[in-house]
């Protein structure tokens, strides 16, 4: 006999894996991985630049949870497409500037690797900004 007290709703795991299969889910997950790896390398070689990765990691995790839990349809007082666009666009610019500065200064291998990964992150955030630009839709 079925339990009538609990309606059949998708589990948290199902919702998470369904979101991770979308283009936005893959982009946000890749951005989180890039931020963590850049944070690790910057912390080891150039601690002054690690705050950018921390801030972007927090912002990206917030947007990941908002989109994964479908909160962007429930919370209407924030315009989510424009907020996401500005987050990604500003992150792309800041990662580009920071990576160029780190690469020009030269230093250890971890610093150069962080600079190169920062350029990759800048292109990843730039692609996200291009894809999520609200006027394109």
Supply database-style keywords.
single chain, 137 residues, 5 helices
CATH class: Mainly Alpha
Spans of 5+ residues with little confidence (pLDDT < 50)? none
Radius of gyration: 18 Å
Q: What is the overall number of helices? A: 5
CATH architecture name = Up-down Bundle
Quaternary structure of the protein? single chain
Biggest pleated-sheet summary? none
Number of structurally distinct domains: 1
Distance between the termini: 47 Å
What is the string of helix and strand elements?
HHHHH
**What is the CATH topology descriptor?**
Substrate Binding Domain Of Dnak, Chain:A, Domain 2
Mean pLDDT, all residues: 85
Shape: elongated
Helix content: over 70%
Structural class: mainly alpha
Beta-strand segment tally = 0
Residue fraction in strands: under 5%
Characterization of this structure:
The protein is elongated and about 50 Å long. The longest helix has 26 residues, at 80-105. It contains five helices and no strands. It has helices at residues 12-20, 23-45, 50-68, 80-105, 109-131. It has one domain (16-136): Substrate Binding Domain Of Dnak, Chain:A, Domain 2 (Up-down Bundle), CATH 1.20.1270. It has 137 residues and is mainly alpha-helical. The mean pLDDT is 85.
